[in-house]
Amino acid sequence: MDDEVFVVVDLETTGLSPETDRITEIAAVRLRGTDVLGEFATLVAPGVPVPAFITALTGISDAMVADAPPLRDVLPAFRDFARDAVLVAHNAPFDIGFLRAACAGCGEPWPHLVVVDTLALARALVSRGEVSDYKLATLARAFEAPAPSTHRAVADARATAHILRALIARLRRAGVHDLSGLLQCTGHPSEPEAV
To answer: HEC string of the chain?
Structure first.
């Protein structure tokens, strides 16, 4: 896994549904082994008002995204950043669902990347005796992430990257040294499949 490139992504959105809600922020950290190769971060103009409860949760307001680029301008840059990498997210179905819907809405093809869910990986590798739950903030504290989870995409992507590295270290100690073994721990087939 030392040669594997991972892109750890986190999104902020106007709500929970990829069909009706929109992305307001995308951030990602590109890793090879323990080395950070780069970061990607941008606010996104959602084209709809940001609900008050989202502003209260994330701090992202209509004023903050008023001059942000639209998704159709952001997606190609993000796809370039994530090219030829394994995509990683905490509770990946949420982020991947929004990214797939965003691609469809912009007429862009989904890049069909292999996806790793740190939530599923943590459930497989971290006992309930170690943590009270598997929320990003809880795992970030448990693994002493230097960047705490804050419901902002940059901080959460950095926290997830730290958690991924800690979980990979556990896998190595258990004798797992390749992507296929990692994917087996999350319930995926042993051969990486793009989704």
So the answer is: CCCCEEEEEEEEECCCCCCCCCEEEEEEEEEECCEEEEEEEEECECCCCCCHHHHHHHCCCHHHHCCCCEHHHHHHHHHHHHCCCEEEECCHHHHHHHHHHHHHHCCCCCCCCEEEEHHHHHHHHCCCCCCCCCCHHHHHHHCCCCCCCCCCHHHHHHHHHHHHHHHHHHHHHCCCCCHHHHHHHCCCCCCCCEC
- Residue 129: CB partners within 8 Å, gap ≥ 6? none
- Which pLDDT tens digits describe the chain residue by residue (195 residues)? 889 999 999 999 999 999 999 999 999 999 998 899 999 999 999 999 999 999 999 999 999 999 999 999 999 999 999 999 999 999 999 999 999 999 999 998 888 889 999 999 999 999 999 999 999 999 999 999 987 778 999 999 999 999 999 999 999 999 999 999 999 988 765 555 555
Residue 8 pairs in a beta bridge with 29, 88
pTM for the model: 0.94
Q: What number of CA atoms fall less than 13 Å from residue 140's CA on the CB side?
A: 18
Owner of token pair 């793009």: 194
d(CA 158, CA 174): 25
End-to-end CA distance of the chain: 20
